[in-house]
């Protein structure tokens, strides 16, 4: 049986703009603490994992159709069912009543296939008894074990699955943010944010062209107040700004290590050209970034060179003078 393809109107993490704070809004699940959970965990053997997962998807879809529920109430994620061997065995773990969504009891199913790191999750506020009976009637599942709640193994298993389920609900980070986090941050700190904000507000050239409203940006708090302002003025999302900045200062760090001692530092024009050539900034964006970083005090060549040569101690030079 082919993998079930949901209508395009159904929600998926793939459809969500991962740079918006809305991406952090997931169903308000209240998962009962394991010490309070009083339902057994039911474990089934699943003989045809791909077909069984598809059947569960169809069952959920039919329940929504019968109740005329709007498709936006469903969340359908890729479960890599096409990667499963049609005849492969799996374990199906049923956790009835393990969670609540707005005080409505919900059940969770977890499909585990040997040597496959993907856990196939299903959850529903609909009672799943009829689903399990129908799967058993067509020999898709066979009862293997009922694990009582008053055992230590039950507590451990439930704790692990609760954590994995909550993690699976999260919408992934944006690619720009993940790439930025993979890079070492070589940029100096902004020493005086209030003064930096004043300087940015007075730099007329920064206030030309289109600006970006970052009120709904998921990564707004990853930037300092002055850099939030600069990111908006340059019309960049916060994660995009963060990635560009880390790439730029990593290149500066490597350049200082490579260049001969008496070689001249790069000019601001060369910084601008680098941004245009290496991170696809527009000429206007590149010029604004260089100007903005200069106003923030993080483009100071002496200060940055001192940082590189002294392993990050850059607030004062060797004579105790502050870099400004």
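Q: What amino acid sequence fits the structure above?
A:
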């Amino acid at each position: 049986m082919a993998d079930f393809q949901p209508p395009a109107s159904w929600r998926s993490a793939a459809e969500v703009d991962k740079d918006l704070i809305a991406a952090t809004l997931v169903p308000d699940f209240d998962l009962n603490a394991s010490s309070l959970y009083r339902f057994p965990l039911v474990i089934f053997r699943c003989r045809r994992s791909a077909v069984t997962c598809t059947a569960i998807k169809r069952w959920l879809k039919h329940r929504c159709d019968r109740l005329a529920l709007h498709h936006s109430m469903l969340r359908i994620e890729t479960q890599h069912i096409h990667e499963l061997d049609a005849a492969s065995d799996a374990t199906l773990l049923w956790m009835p009543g393990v969670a609540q969504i707005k005080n409505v009891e919900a059940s969770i199913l977890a499909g585990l296939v040997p040597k496959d790191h993907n856990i196939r999750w299903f959850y529903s506020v609909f009672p799943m008894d009829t689903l399990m009976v129908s799967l058993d009637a067509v020999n898709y599942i066979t009862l293997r074990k009922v694990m009582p709640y008053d055992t230590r193994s039950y507590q451990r298993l439930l704790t692990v699955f609760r954590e994995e389920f909550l993690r699976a609900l999260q919408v992934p980070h944006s690619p720009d943010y993940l790439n930025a986090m993979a890079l070492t941050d070589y940029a100096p700190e902004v020493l005086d944010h209030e003064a930096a904000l004043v300087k940015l507000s007075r730099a007329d050239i920064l206030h030309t062209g289109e600006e970006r409203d970052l009120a709904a940006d998921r990564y707004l708090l990853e930037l300092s107040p002055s850099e939030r302002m600069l990111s908006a003025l340059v019309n960049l999302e916060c994660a995009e700004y963060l990635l560009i900045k880390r790439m730029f200062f990593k290149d500066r760090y490597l350049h200082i290590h490579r260049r001969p001692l008496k070689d001249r530092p790069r000019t601001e024009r060369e910084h601008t050209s680098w941004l245009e050539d290496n991170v696809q900034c527009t000429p206007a964006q590149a010029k604004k970034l260089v100007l903005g970083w200069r106003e923030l005090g993080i483009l100071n060549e002496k200060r940055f060179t001192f940082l590189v040569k002294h392993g990050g101690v850059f607030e004062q030079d060797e004579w105790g003078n502050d870099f400004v």
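Q: And what stands out in the fold?
A: Residues 13-171 form one domain.
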